[in-house]
Amino acid sequence: MTHPSEPATRTPIFSGEPFERVVAVLIALVTIIAAVVGYLQGQASIRSDRALREAQTFAIEALSQKAAGEIEIGYAWTDLWRSWSELDSQAVIAADFDDAAAAERYDTVRDRLIGLSPLLAPPYFDPDQDDEPDVAAYEADLYVVNSTYLTERFLATFEMSEAWGDKADTYVAHLTILAVTLFLYGLSVTLLGQVRWLFVVLGSLFALVTVVWVIVVYTRPISIPSEPAIRAYAEGVGRLHQESPEAAIVSFDQALTLAPAYADAYFERGNAYFDLEQLDQAAANYEMAVNAGRGDISTIMELGRVYYFQGRLADALRLVQTELTLGPDHVVSYLDLGLVNLAAGQGEAAQGAFEQAMTLAGQQVAAARAAGQEPPDSLWWYLDVAATDLDSLSACLTDQECDATPPYDIVSRSVPDVAVVDAVAQQLKELTVALEYTGRPPDPSTGVDISSFEFAAELYDDNDEFIDYDITDTFPADIGDVIVLLTYDGMQDGQQVVVKVFLDGEEDPTLRVLETWDQGQAGETELLLSTGLLSTFTPGEYWVEMYVDSHLVAQEGFTVEE
Amino acid sequence: MAILIAIVTIAGALVAWRAAIIDAEAGDADFAGLTATINAARTKITNTNTVYEHYRGYTVYTRNRELQYLLEDTVDPDQASDLNVREWAVSAQIADDSQELFSRRFLNEDGSYNLKREFGETWAEAGQSLDLDPAPHFAQADSYRSKSSTLIMVFIVQALALLFFTIAEGLSAARSGWRYSLALLGLAALIFSVAAAILVELG
Predict the structure, then answer these.
(1) For FRET with B64, which of A107, A131, B83, B129 sits at 20 to 30 Å CA-CA?
(2) Mean pLDDT of A469-477
(3) What is the pLDDT of residues A481-527, one digit of tens each?
(4) Adjacent-strand bridge partners of A501
(5) Among all residues of chain B, which has the CA nearest to that of A36?
(6) Per-residue b/e over B92-131, b at no fewer than 16 CB within 10 Å?
(7) Record: contact A64-B44, CB cut-off 8 A
(8) What is the end-to-end Cα distance of chain B in Å, rounded?
């Protein structure tokens, strides 16, 4: 019988020690959470591994496509095209000698070669219209677009692998915290009194924070450019390779519509705008590339260069400082620093930077030669570009021709003396020649005096007998040989003579002359600049520099008319 | 109940161990796939180089043989100049010499060169001594990873079973309905997980 006055006894949910039962349930719950996190970690790890594998595959395929493509191009250009042009020359010469039958034979064999490679057929080559095949277009179609596509896929999948790897690593951290939680729960059952609840609360707090953190990591998106965006980008690079920046911009626009954070596409679109001399758009695109995560030295250099051309010298200087942070031993960074400082009127700082650049260049060449190696090709390129930039700055100050410099009003305001610019340019040019041919800086002055440095064409009579020189600085379009007439004193036999010929500001290496002097101390002589028997000088502005033992002793220009 | 908890714990450890082993096998398969990718790339580059070396020889051959034939066709031997005769001899000799630089079995009926066939044959030849196909290895790696992933899911089910057993163990005797229900749920989860693990291993 029960007594109505007695309170009803409540059946306990758990038997035994309630604290231990609660802890046991918590341990089981945390085990489930850990199992789920373990599953997520496994999934992230699998995706990371798979993406890494794909990235490696793309990288290998990109390299093999490029290598195989270049072998094919090598055959088409250096073997087949050379054979074609040889036969073409033979046909022309045979025709000149009134041997029509031989000319026809050579023409026939020449035409037979056309079928051996697509390079010699439309759309890459039409003998009736083109002087030579469009190799860039053939390269673009053969491998540039595809290898660019594969390289970008490599970069994208590698980035994805890294992102999934980060997630997997974070899940491992979560599992570690959950293990600590389990330890705290386990420890709590060995304790007595209220303090054991402290361990349970602390462990539960850890578990709760971990769960929230897991959710945050799980929902964090991983974004890479899509396949169509990469395809459009690669097409753009191919078009840029063919020097079609307008068409390239269309492709890059498409890529950026599909992937608005595609840093490489911004960079290449910046290059395309730069090629079109649209500096504002170029700068904007380079800036967007940097903002999208492409902060490498090449992007910084290009952006700094655009700022320099725009006359934003303070911004350019800021970027050169970044360049120096990214590559403290880069010759090019000191050359840029010198140039920007010079344009900004900081003569002393400019001189210091150029001296540092020249010292570094000398050290790099000496180190390479000592190791039995060649210095990096980029070194010559950077030294040449720096000298050209200084020449442009000089031309801007003297002739107000400021195509490749900051605007005239900025330059003229800040640069006190054009002679300073010319002196640095000459130092750089002489250093380049000296390093290229002797591996060390130039010796002190040679004492050579070139009192006359003129250009001429040879005049012949009807019997092909030489009559005289026609001294001029303007030649007709069909000129094949230009004679340099010079009067000299202070020369010594055995001295090295280098003549560099620049067409519209860029050296034409096919016209470079390298001789060992054997014509005595003083007198008059001539040097031949020749494009060969059947070729002619390309129309444009030519500039000739003569170096004796790496010292610039004479320079002058001539024009070849259209 | 304690025995069931022990069983589920041991089963969980076994499943986790197998998942780790299978994941390692996936890594091995990936390695084999990448090796095949490198083999294929190296073979492609080497073969392209070899085939184009032969094609260079064929180009020289074509140029000189054509010149030789054209001279024969267009110049009357009785009226040929010394220059013609010398050019004919040089062309014929170079054409003969350059025949050594390529295989005539790759010439088509019209005299053109079958680059595609030479590529195909050199690829097949390389394939006899090298693994050039990464796809099966990558497919196998994916299959292993899928197995490993499924086993981890099985492990989650086992963790659930552990939870059911733990709660059932802790419930008071007065709540026997709940106890047995949870124990049955745990047992079902355990049996399901073991069966799933066996199926995954066999499949």
Answers:
(1) A131
(2) 92
(3) 999 999 999 999 999 999 999 998 889 988 999 999 999 999 999 99
(4) A544
(5) B156
(6) bebbeebeeebeeebeeeeeebebeebbebbeeebeeeeb
(7) yes
(8) 32
Q: Please, what is the angle between helix B2-74 and helix A18-74, to 10°?
A: 0
Give the single-character DSSP code of B48: H
Q: Best mutation site among A19, A23, A26, A53 for testing chain B: the one with the most B CBs within 10 Å?
A: A53
DSSP three-state, residue A492: coil
Distance CA A168, CA A107 (A): 67
Contacts of B171 in chain A (CB under 8 A): 13-15
| Tokens linked to A141 | 């179609």
- Nearest alpha carbon to residue A548 among A501, A493, A502: A493
Confidence of residue B23 (pLDDT cuts 50, 70, 90): confident
Dist. CA A153–CA A308, nearest whole Å: 34
What is the β-pairing status of strands A551-560 and A474-475? parallel
State the pLDDT confidence band at A1, using cuts at 50, 70 and 90: very low
**What's the token pair of residue B3?**
């025995």
Distance (Å) from the alpha carbon of A536 to chain B's nearest alpha carbon? 27
Sign of CA dihedral A360, A364, A365, A369: positive
Contact residues, chain B, for A31 at CB < 8 Å:
159, 162-163
d(CA B152, CA B150) in angstroms, rounded, equals 5
Pick the residue from chain A with its C-alpha nearest to B47: A68
Give the rounded distance of the alpha carbon of A252 from its chain centre.
Answer: 18
**How far apart are the CA of A142 and the nearest CA of chain B, in angstroms?**
13
Q: Which residues pair with A496 in a beta bridge?
A: A516
Q: CA of A85, closest CA in chain B: separation in Å?
A: 12
DSSP conformational letter for A140: I
Over range A303-326, report the average pLDDT: 94
| Non-local CB neighbours of A229 within 8 Å, separated by 6+ positions | A254, A255, A256, A258, A259, A262, A265
User: Distance between CA A457 and CA A434 in Å, rounded?
Assistant: 31
Q: How many CB pairs under 8 A join A and B?
A: 141
User: Tokens 């790890």 belong to which residue?
Assistant: A45
> Which alpha helices (H) appear in A17-121, and where do they start and end?
18-74, 82-96, 100-113
CA pair distance B179, B50, nearest whole angstrom: 77
Report the distance separating Cα B174 and Cα B195, nearest Å.
33
- Closest-CA distance, B175 to chain A, in angstroms, reads 7
C-beta atoms of A15 and B171 within 8 A: yes
B159/A53 CB distance under 8 A: no
Q: How far is CA A519 from CA A445, A549, A555, B14, in A?
A: 20, 15, 20, 92
Q: What's the rounded Cα separation, in Å, for the pair A416 and B69? A: 73
ipTM above 0.90, yes or no: no
**Coil, strand, or helix at residue A515?**
strand
Q: Which residue has the tokens 């899940």?
A: A171
Give yes or no for a contact between B113 and B58, defined as CB atoms under 8 angstroms apart. Answer: yes
H helix or E strand, kind and range, residue A544: strand A540-548
Share of chain A above pLDDT 90, in %: 73
Which structure tokens are listed for A336?
């840029």
Candidates A39, A63, A87; nearest CB to B156: A39
Residues from chain A that touch B67, judged by Cβ atoms under 8 A, are 105-106, 109
Cβ-Cβ contacts under 8 Å, A35 against chain B: 152, 155-156, 158-159
The rounded radius of gyration (Å) of the Cα atoms in chain B is: 36
Task: Please state the pTM of the whole predicted model.
Answer: 0.83
pLDDT computed for residue A63 by the predictor: 95
Tell me the backbone φ, ψ of residue A21, rounded to 5 degrees: -65, -40
* Contact (CB, 8 A) for A501 and A544: yes
Distance from CA of A198 to the nearest CA of B (A): 22
Return the SS3 of A154. Answer: helix
